[in-house]
Amino acid sequence: MRTYLDDPAELDAVLARGAAHAREIASATLADVYTKVGFLPPAG
What we know:
Blueprint: H1 2-6, H2 8-37
């Protein structure tokens, strides 16, 4: 924990990797939900 507090750049990198991983999982889950519910996927 102290390592991250001592190195803000490393903390930012870890948070960015976690956010990218979460986005990947959420994207797949939302795609399934949109398909099952019958919604069109959001534009973009």
